[in-house]
Design the sequence.
């Protein structure tokens, strides 16, 4: 059974940093692109970033480029999102998702809440 | 990377059919057949319902179907059921190797 479990969400002050983790199991992790998607309270989904299976390519939405870094550890079956210079508008539930061969996100975690506030 | 355009809400009665539109540009919806649709119930993670415009993952009822014409993709749900009441989001690959979501549509049954 495919499972994705996010962790690391917390309350952080503006300008602060946070690292999210996503533990994957039930599939061959190093075969798949992985994605982070976020959802601000009461708002819609926003694609944040994705990473190639071997980590050699990474893409970001404009609003986080230069502040967030997506990475992965295939030996540990884990996906990460390092978030720096956090802003109030980064407050959201962050989901990790597996991208199937069609680039659609076919499995999702339950999400982890990041709150940026003083 | 502007969000795709979806109607804020649609409604239908049990047994009826509804269609949700998703309008983008030639740089996303119109340029690729990598359009997906997701269903999200309150407090839950999104669930993939349609991928590559028309394909259903295993386990998704055939009441759900997708199509595309030009820069607009559509999700049709036939034979509406109470459990279909949820938020629906479209998504498309873009020319910059990113993905973009629509603003979401609240379906009321």
Sequence:
């Amino acid at each position: 059974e495919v499972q994705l479990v996010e962790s690391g969400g917390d309350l952080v002050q503006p300008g602060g940093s946070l690292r999210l983790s996503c533990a994957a199991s039930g599939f061959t992790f190093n075969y798949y692109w992985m994605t982070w998607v976020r959802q601000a309270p009461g708002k819609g989904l926003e694609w944040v970033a994705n990473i190639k299976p071997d980590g050699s390519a990474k893409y970001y939405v404009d609003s986080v480029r230069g502040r967030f870094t997506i990475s992965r550890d295939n030996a540990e079956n884990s996906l990460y999102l390092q978030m720096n210079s956090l802003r109030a508008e980064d407050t959201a539930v962050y989901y990790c998702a597996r991208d199937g061969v069609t680039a659609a996100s076919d499995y999702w975690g339950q999400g982890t809440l990041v709150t940026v506030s003083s | 990377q502007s969000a795709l355009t979806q109607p804020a809400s649609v409604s239908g009665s049990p047994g009826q059919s509804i269609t949700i539109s998703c309008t983008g540009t030639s740089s996303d919806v119109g340029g690729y057949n990598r359009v997906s649709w997701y269903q999200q119930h309150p407090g839950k993670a999104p669930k993939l319902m349609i991928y590559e415009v028309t394909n259903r993952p295993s386990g998704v009822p055939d009441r759900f179907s997708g199509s595309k014409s030009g820069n607009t993709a559509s999700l049709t749900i036939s034979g509406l059921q109470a459990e279909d009441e949820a938020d629906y989001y479209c998504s498309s690959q873009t020319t910059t190797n990113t993905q973009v979501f629509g603003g979401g549509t609240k379906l009321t049954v």
About this structure: The first strand of chain B starts at residue 9 and ends at 11.
